[in-house]
């Protein structure tokens, strides 16, 4: 075979490979086709075997020509192989078309904390940031801790059966978290920085805004030079953090036996912004934080020298705050055990498509 | 309490263009909370006095009278009226044709009941005194028929003060005291209190009123004046309008005047018909004594009731209410005026015991200034002189004052003022701030000595902090520059119990999807009865919120089961938790414990295992994460206190060696008793006592290791009777010993067709290995044989 003839035959083979491989759709068929061309007994393989038939000085050139053709054929076959693999992958992913990527995930309900607990956790986090310790006390309190230690005199109307739940062991269900002030002073002494969240009880007739069982959080700071400006600054920081926005405060005199001076801290109504609505009784303000400088008698009862230290205390109605935050209109749902008014519907199952509930 | 701005202006010359709402806001931020500001805008035009000259009943129209009125000169008009007590000679407020007030518009001539009506007798309501409840406002001789009534008398603003914000301020229960605060707020002078000079009342030519006081503690002061020439006439129009606006009903000159002084100075007074009162004795009643009070009720008194007597006969309930036998009536011409000062606690107890919360009692309870007794009589006299030209003093101002207090002087350290105020305040500033409120200050050394005026000295201002409060009130809270506290750092540990509680709630909510609910800390007797539960020995409320709510809970589960019952209408499966206090009587002092209650409820009877297992999985994970302790369950018999526990499916829960609570399936009878629908449900529950756990130290987890030579896992399923308990089998399996054994752990439990009826398959995973070498197949076979032999010897079959 002349070089010319060889070239022609190789071109022929190339064409044969290009056409032949296109007919094949299975990897195995392509593999056997490949060996029928490139194998030792294959079309190109046999040509390579016959190289000795050429004159010695042409053999190098012939080898080159055949090898080039071989590489070309291999490239065509490999291209077809990867094409078939791509088609297979494409087919496999398409084969899974019953998987709907837009379908919601498995439907499982979430658990929930009581609204009061959620608010309490939030408040605790804020105060921990300011270096407060969280203290607690019992719900069943001695008369002394609940009243006497807090400068509430023996004949004070708050001690009446119409205001306080009395027990047959002469103790009371605490009417506020303030006894924890006294307990903490006794336990830690001054200086001191605590909050005391917890459940309290007042003898009340139940209605949409009155409960006999509710939650409060008490705050107490005692240190060398604690002032009214400190109390106001702290209150503002607290309320801004809770409301997650700038709030306006109105500070006015208030009267509570365990503080002197006593203050009422009002916040601009978050419902109407201060222009007046039913929630704020048209005043633009809501009473939010009864507060004051710790009464010297209370410090003394807690074993702290009122000459040496001063302090402020405040109370925040957790139940009330939870109602404001979550828009709960009837306080009675909080102790009813009914999940519907205290759990967000989205927690209770799959995604909601239409929601006309308010 | 209601305040009339017109009245306040008697004592403070407030700017005429002052917006009453601004005044209210300033009073709120510096003195007491204002709850409302209401304009009394009558817009009276052309009102006159008119005297009734004839009144005739309209036939067939009850309550309606045709009257003819004189309106000056010889002019008369006719009109119809429903006023019941109107009679010839009555002088009334009248709107002739063409006159107007805001509520009626311009009065036109018309016809009523067939007769011409040429004007209108105005009811109290149209004049801004809604409580008057009368169809006419009666005038004395101050206005002649036809005389125009000044329009500005009718214009006012009423300011409502929150009573709670002034309970500690007896001085603010009168207009003069409120005017003092307002004068100070606006920096205006306060008029001196208009009264008849004492000398004029205490002429020594007149006889004394003999006053004896049995108990100087109960009656600190008693002051009296005897008067004559006080006929029954209406009070002046301005006075009627003012007391009417602040919620008191105009009745008669004398009653209105007494009420006026009470609202003016804050001091209640009492007038006796003097004919029956030759002298005064203040004494304790004798047990069982009766007194008919002014409201017509017969009151039974005790030795704790303080009474005013004369000649041994009780006349009135001191400081609370007068007696009917000395009531001032139309024929009374001579009266004895009482103004006294009573112990607030005595008054409160009496008022409380008799459920007689009168205006007078409410004020005396607040501890009034003893100086008020003489002042109120002097004030009364000044106003009465104008009303009763014929009035004469027949018994001079007599005063028995056995309980005179020492003047109150408070020592104040100016450094403490600075500490509270956050800035220094010098003596001059302090004087400027406090003198408008009646305080004076003297400096001695480093201290200030603050003289407290008598009207603030009855308990209100008694210590340094009280004075500092007055200073800061006067400075104004809005003038305070807020600044964060400078505090000392201390190492105070987080309260471990509280940490445990909050983190536990978060865990059960997040990990096992429990919903937290809250419930009351007392049992509901009805519900316990429904559950068939005996409450046990409970701490009880003396004054429960309602009948059957008197026992403090010893367990939380009854409340939780009530919550299950409530939610079963709305959900087909749910997990609930609650964390709270339970209470137990105890000889060494009654105890409060903290409990965590968990419930899992699902519709369907066959879910019991699933419910129980979810609760246990939750407890197991919690115990490990919180305490690094494995939980063990030991079967337990039902407690009498927990009738809901299924006797076959109840266990105690232990962390290490500490039993922390109980877990159980709720037995079918209880479910049925709760609610018949729940008979087709599965409910499991657990109640854990957290108290002892807070102090449990959390052990640091020991992590796994990669062994030097590979280990082999082999699972063995053991067939046991379905009725047998894991605790027994696991205990036996744990006794297996082998030199290659590294670990045995529980994998799962299975019941089903493939293991045969009445059987259960428990799968355990064993791990074998050696420190020295890689195990051979022979090692594994040998171990398998040993373990299977062990199990077989225990009497169980291995499931292949
Ligand atoms: Zn509002």
Biggest chain-to-chain interface with counts: A-B, 81 and 86 residues
Oligomer: heterodimer
- Measured distance between first and last alpha carbons of chain B: 89 Å
- Rg of chain B to the nearest angstrom? 42 Å
Record the strand order, biggest sheet of chain A: 1-4-5-9-8-7-6
The rounded distance between the terminal residues' Cα atoms of chain A is 93 Å
Question: Into which percent range does the helicity of residues of chain A fall?
Answer: 25-40%
> What hetero molecules are bound to the protein chains?
zinc ion
What's the story with the biggest beta sheet of chain B? 7 strands, mixed
Global Rg of chain A: 43 Å
Instruction: Note the beta-strand portion of chain A.
Output: 15-25%
The total beta strand count of chain A reads 9
Question: What general form of chain A does the structure show?
Answer: rod-shaped
User: How confident is the prediction overall: mean pLDDT of chain B?
Assistant: 93
Element-by-element helix/strand order of chain A? HHHHHEEHEHEEHEEEHEH
Q: Tell me the strand order in the biggest sheet of chain B.
A: 28-29-30-34-33-32-31
**Unreliable segments of 5+ consecutive residues of chain B:** none
Number of strands of chain B: 38
Q: How are the secondary structure elements laid out?
A:
The complex is a heterodimer of chains A (358) and B (800).
Chain A: H1 3-23, H2 27-38, H3 43-49, H4 56-95, H5 115-129, E1 133-134, E2 140-141, H6 143-146, E3 172-173, H7 179-188, E4 192-201, E5 213-223, H8 228-243, E6 249-253, E7 259-268, E8 285-294, H9 296-301, E9 310-317, H10 318-326
Parallel strand pairs in A: 1-4
Antiparallel strand pairs in A: 2-3, 4-5, 5-9, 6-7, 7-8, 8-9
Helix pairs in contact in A: 1-4, 2-4, 5-10
Chain B: E1 2-4, H1 5-8, H2 20-30, E2 34-40, E3 48-57, E4 65-70, E5 76-81, E6 91-96, E7 100-101, E8 105-106, E9 110-112, E10 115-117, E11 119-121, E12 138-139, E13 156-161, H3 175-186, H4 198-201, E14 211-213, E15 219-228, H5 237-245, H6 253-265, E16 270-273, E17 280-284, E18 290-292, E19 298-300, E20 306-310, E21 313-317, E22 321-322, E23 334-342, H7 344-353, H8 359-364, H9 372-387, E24 392-400, E25 409-412, H10 414-421, H11 427-434, E26 440-444, E27 447-451, H12 464-475, H13 496-512, E28 515-516, H14 525-531, H15 557-567, E29 573-584, E30 591-603, H16 608-627, E31 631-635, E32 645-655, E33 658-666, H17 668-674, E34 681-689, E35 712-721, H18 726-733, E36 741-750, E37 759-768, H19 777-794, E38 797-799
Parallel strand pairs in B: 14-17, 28-29
Antiparallel strand pairs in B: 1-13, 2-13, 3-4, 3-6, 4-5, 6-11, 6-12, 7-8, 9-10, 15-23, 15-24, 16-23, 17-20, 18-19, 20-21, 21-22, 25-27, 26-27, 29-30, 30-34, 31-32, 32-33, 33-34, 35-37, 35-38, 36-37
Helix pairs in contact in B: 5-6, 6-9, 10-12, 13-16
The structure holds zinc ion (ZN).
Zinc ion is lined by residues 269, 271-272, 276-277, 279-280 of chain A.
């Amino acid at each position: 075979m002349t070089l010319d003839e060889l070239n022609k035959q190789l071109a022929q083979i190339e064409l044969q490979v290009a056409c032949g491989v296109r007919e094949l759709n299975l990897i195995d068929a392509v593999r056997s086709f490949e060996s029928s061309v490139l194998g030792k007994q294959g079309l190109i393989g046999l040509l390579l075997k016959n190289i000795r038939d050429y004159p010695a000085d042409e053999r190098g050139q012939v080898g080159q020509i055949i090898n080039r053709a071989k590489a070309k054929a291999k490239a065509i076959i490999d291209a077809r192989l990867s094409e078939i693999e791509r088609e297979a992958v494409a087919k496999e992913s398409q084969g899974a078309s019953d998987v709907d990527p837009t379908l919601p995930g498995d439907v499982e309900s979430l658990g929930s904390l009581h609204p009061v607990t959620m608010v309490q956790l939030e408040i605790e986090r804020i105060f921990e940031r300011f270096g407060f310790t969280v203290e607690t006390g019992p719900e069943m309190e001695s008369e002394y801790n609940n009243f006497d230690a807090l400068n509430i005199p023996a004949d004070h109307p708050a001690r009446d059966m119409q205001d306080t739940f009395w027990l047959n062991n002469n103790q009371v269900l605490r009417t506020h978290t303030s006894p924890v002030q006294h307990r903490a002073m006794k336990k830690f002494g001054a200086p001191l920085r605590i909050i005391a969240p917890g459940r309290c009880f007042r003898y009340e007739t139940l209605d949409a805004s009155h409960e006999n069982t509710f939650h409060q959080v008490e705050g107490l700071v005692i240190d060398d030079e604690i002032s009214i400006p400190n109390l106001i600054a702290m209150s503002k920081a607290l309320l801004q953090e809770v409301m997650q926005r700038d709030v306006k405060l109105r500070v006015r005199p208030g009267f509570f036996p365990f503080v002197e001076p006593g203050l009422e801290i009002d916040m601009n109504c978050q419902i109407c912004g201060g222009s007046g609505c039913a929630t704020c009784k048209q005043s633009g303000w809501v009473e939010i934080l009864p507060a004051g400088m710790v009464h010297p008698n209370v410090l003394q009862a807690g074993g702290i020298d009122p000459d040496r230290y001063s302090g402020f205390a405040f109370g925040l109605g957790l139940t009330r705050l939870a109602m404001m935050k979550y828009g709960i209109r009837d306080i009675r749902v909080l102790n009813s055990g009914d999940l519907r008014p205290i759990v967000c519907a989205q927690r209770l199952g799959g995604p909601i498509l239409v929601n006309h509930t308010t | 309490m209601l305040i009339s701005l017109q009245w306040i202006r008697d004592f403070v010359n407030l700017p005429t263009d002052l917006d009453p709402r601004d005044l209210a806001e300033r009073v709120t931020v510096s003195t007491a909370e204002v709850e409302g500001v209401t304009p009394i805008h009558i817009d009276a035009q052309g009102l006159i006095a008119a005297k009734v000259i004839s009144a005739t009943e309209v036939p067939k129209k009850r309550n309606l009278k045709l009257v003819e009125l004189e309106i000056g000169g010889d002019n008369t008009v006719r009109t119809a009226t429903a006023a019941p007590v109107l009679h010839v000679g009555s002088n009334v407020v009248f709107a002739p044709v063409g006159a107007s007030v805001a509520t009626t518009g311009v009065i036109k001539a018309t016809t009523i009941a067939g007769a011409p009506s040429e004007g209108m007798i105005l009811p109290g309501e149209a004049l801004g005194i809604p409580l008057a409840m009368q169809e006419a406002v009666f005038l004395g001789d101050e206005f002649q028929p036809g005389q125009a009534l000044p329009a500005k008398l009718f214009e006012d603003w009423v300011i409502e003060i929150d009573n709670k914000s002034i309970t500690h301020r007896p001085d603010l229960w009168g207009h003069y005291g409120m005017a003092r605060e307002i004068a100070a707020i606006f920096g205006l002078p306060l008029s001196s209190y208009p009264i008849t000079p004492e000398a004029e009342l205490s002429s020594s030519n007149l006889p004394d009123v003999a006053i004896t006081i049995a108990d100087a503690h109960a009656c600190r002061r008693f002051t009296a004046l005897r008067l004559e020439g006080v006929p029954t006439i209406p009070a002046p129009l301005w006075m009627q309008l003012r007391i009417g606006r602040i919620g008191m009903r105009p009745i008669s000159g004398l009653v209105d005047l007494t009420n006026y002084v009470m609202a003016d100075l804050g001091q209640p007074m009492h007038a006796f018909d003097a004919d029956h009162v030759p002298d005064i004795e203040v004494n304790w009643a004798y047990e069982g004594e009766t007194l008919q009070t002014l409201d017509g009720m017969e009151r039974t008194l005790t030795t704790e009731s303080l009474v005013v007597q004369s000649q041994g006969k009780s006349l009135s309930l001191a400081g609370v209410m007068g007696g009917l036998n000395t009531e001032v009536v139309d024929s009374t011409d001579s009266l004895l005026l009482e103004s006294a000062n009573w112990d607030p606690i005595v008054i409160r107890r009496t008022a409380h015991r008799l459920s007689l919360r009168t205006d007078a009692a409410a004020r005396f309870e607040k501890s009034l200034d003893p100086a008020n007794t003489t002042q109120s009589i002097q004030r009364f006299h000044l106003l009465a002189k104008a009303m009763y030209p014929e009035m004469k003093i027949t018994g001079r101002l007599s005063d028995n004052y056995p309980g005179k207090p020492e003047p109150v002087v408070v020592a104040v350290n100016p450094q403490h003022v600075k500490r509270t105020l956050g800035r220094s305040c010098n003596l001059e500033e302090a004087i400027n701030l406090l003198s408008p409120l009646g305080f004076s200050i003297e400096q001695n050394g480093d201290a200030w000595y603050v003289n407290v005026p008598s009207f603030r000295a009855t308990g209100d201002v008694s210590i340094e902090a009280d004075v500092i409060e007055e200073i800061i009130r006067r400075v104004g809270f809005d003038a305070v520059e807020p600044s964060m506290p400078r505090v000392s750092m201390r190492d105070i540990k987080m309260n471990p119990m509280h940490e445990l509680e909050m983190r536990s709630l978060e865990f059960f909510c997040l990990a096992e999807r429990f919903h937290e609910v809250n419930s009351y800390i007392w049992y509901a007797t009805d519900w316990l009865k429904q559950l068939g539960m005996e409450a046990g020995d409970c701490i009880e409320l003396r004054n429960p919120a309602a009948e059957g709510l008197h026992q403090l809970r010893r367990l939380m589960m009854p409340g939780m089961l009530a919550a299950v019952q409530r939610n079963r209408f709305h959900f087909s499966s749910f997990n609930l938790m609650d964390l709270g206090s339970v209470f137990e009587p105890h000889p060494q002092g009654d105890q409060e414990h903290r409990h965590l209650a968990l419930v899992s409820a699902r519709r369907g009877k066959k879910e019991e295992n699933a419910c129980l297992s979810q609760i246990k999985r939750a407890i197991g994970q919690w115990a490990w994460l919180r305490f690094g302790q494995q939980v063990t369950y030991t079967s337990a018999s039902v407690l009498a206190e927990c009738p809901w526990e299924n006797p076959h499916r109840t266990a105690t829960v232990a962390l290490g060696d500490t039993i922390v609570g109980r877990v159980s399936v709720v037995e079918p009878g209880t479910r049925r008793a709760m609610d018949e629908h729940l008979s087709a449900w599965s409910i499991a529950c657990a109640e854990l006592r957290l108290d002892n756990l807070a102090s449990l130290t959390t052990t640091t987890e020991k992590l796994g290791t990669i062994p030097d030579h590979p280990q082999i896992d082999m699972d063995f399923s053991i067939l046991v009777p379905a009725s047998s308990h894991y605790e027994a089998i696991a205990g036996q399996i744990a006794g297996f010993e082998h030199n290659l054994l590294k670990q045995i752990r529980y994998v799962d439990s299975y019941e089903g067709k493939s293991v045969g009826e009445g059987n259960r398959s428990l799968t355990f995973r064993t791990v074998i290995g050696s420190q020295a070498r890689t195990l051979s197949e022979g090692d594994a076979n040998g171990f398998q044989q040993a373990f299977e032999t062990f199990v077989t010897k225990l009497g169980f079959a291995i499931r292949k």
